[in-house]
Amino acid sequence: MSTAIFTVRPTTLAISTTECLNLEEMGHEDDPIALNPGENHVSVGVGVFRILATTPVRVTAETNDAHILSLTKDGGSPDPPKFTDFDVSAVRAFLVDLKSQPAPV
């Protein structure tokens, strides 16, 4: 299971998980934010983020304009929300790459 998060202004994400995971930002994949089991609070700026997990992850945002989507390997890659300036091709490539990765061990 994977989660895509689109933020259009700085916000704090509350991420609840039962496993050790990474929150990755598009364009900064080499510098992920570690998430521990339990409730994690992470401040993020404008961007596209992803989480790859083997169990369900609950994500909420402090602002009401963040978009949070669960993705499946069988589904298509979502486009960014229409009111954003995110590059559609870059977002698709980032999220397709997420769906092709093995689940964390």
Compose a concise summary of this entry.
The protein has 105 residues and is mostly beta strands. It has one helix at residues 88-100, and strands at residues 2-7, 11-17, 21-25, 33-35, 38-44, 47-52, 58-61, 67-71.
Q: Can you offer a commentary on this structure?
A:
The protein is mainly beta and 105 residues long. The chain has one domain (2-100). Helices cover 12% and strands 41% of the residues. The protein contains one helix and eight strands. The protein has one helix at 88-100, and strands spanning 2-7, 11-17, 21-25, 33-35, 38-44, 47-52, 58-61, 67-71. The strands form two sheets. It has a five-stranded antiparallel sheet, with helices on one face. It has a three-stranded antiparallel sheet with strand order 5-2-7, with no helix packed on it. β3 and β4 form a beta hairpin. It is globular, with a radius of gyration of 13 Å. The relative contact order is 0.32. The mean pLDDT is 83.
